[in-house]
TrEMBL record:
Protein name from the UniProt record: Probable transcriptional regulatory protein B6A10_12945
Highest taxon listed in the record's lineage: Bacteria
Residue ranges constituting the TACO1/YebC-like second and third domain according to the UniProt record: 79-234
Taxonomic classification: Bacteria, Pseudomonadati, Bacteroidota, Flavobacteriia, Flavobacteriales
Organism per entry: Flavobacterium pokkalii
Family matches, as InterPro entries: Integrase-like_N, TACO1_YebC-like_2nd/3rd_dom, TACO1_YebC_N, Transcrip_reg_TACO1-like, Transcrip_reg_TACO1-like_dom3, YebC-like
Length: 239
């Protein structure tokens, strides 16, 4: 198995699942998708993907429809995606994806978290190169073979295809998202969820005290309403 498999296995996905703000964050994704491509999921591939993710997160259909309707209102705040880069204690690189309607607020908040936790907010490009920007799709296992799919989808950009307890996962470079989404839809294969992740090229092993220092910063960042995802180069133990 490759790095995407190890990343998925080791990453603490429970953090995302446990966040009470999951629906709020999906709501932001809906707003950005509608503002970019309109409210019709049939003609807006990004919105289709967000709706699939909302379903996977058990977000009520009424909430989704209301979010789409609200996003179509020109008075609805537009969110801008901003990437922050920096270092946690012990040389751990941190990459933060945010979606904000107030850039000044977000910058001030992120800077304060780094300052309070002995980290350093970096400049653009300071750590992004340490991560591979990937896309992923989760599809049902039934009637499909992961090894066969991997061979078939190499031509569409797939780099890793593997099974876990919830289905088959396809990983590819970020810019292959549209191509793979279209091919899965053309084949009538259900997309359970999809998204983007930044996989560290190299990770660093820390001791328990050092891990606690880094996690203190990560937890502060993750609590911020503007933060969508946090990635880092700290080696994570399987749980």
């Amino acid at each position: 198995m490759g790095r995407a498999f190890e990343f998925r296995k080791g990453r603490k996905m429970k953090r995302w699942a446990a966040m009470a703000k999951t629906f709020t964050r999906i709501g932001k994704d809906i707003v950005m998708a509608v503002k970019e491509g309109g409210p019709n999921p049939d003609t807006n591939s990004r919105l289709r993907a967000v709706i699939q993710n909302a379903k996977a997160a058990n977000m009520p259909k009424d909430n989704v429809e209301r979010a789409i309707k609200n996003a179509s209102n020109k008075d609805t705040a537009n969110y801008k995606e901003i990437l922050f880069e920096g270092y946690a204690p012990h040389g751990i690189a941190i990459l933060i994806e945010t979606a904000s309607d107030n850039n000044n607020r977000t910058v001030a908040n992120i800077r304060s978290y780094f300052n309070k936790c002995n980290g350093t907010l970096g400049t653009q490009g300071s750590v992004e190169f340490m991560f591979d920007h990937t896309c992923n799709f989760r599809i049902p296992k039934e009637g499909l073979d992961a090894e066969e799919l991997e061979l078939e989808f190499i031509d569409f950009g797939a780099e890793e295809v593997f099974e876990d307890e919830d289905g088959i996962l396809i990983y590819a470079p970020f810019n292959s998202f549209g191509t793979i989404q279209k091919e899965l839809e053309n084949r009538g294969i259900d997309i359970l969820s999809s998204g983007f992740e930044r996989i560290p090229q190299i990770t660093k092993k820390l001791n328990a005290d050092q891990i606690a220092d880094v996690e203190k910063l990560i937890e502060k960042i993750e609590e911020d309403d503007d933060v969508m995802n946090v990635y880092h180069t700290m080696e994570e133990n399987e749980e």
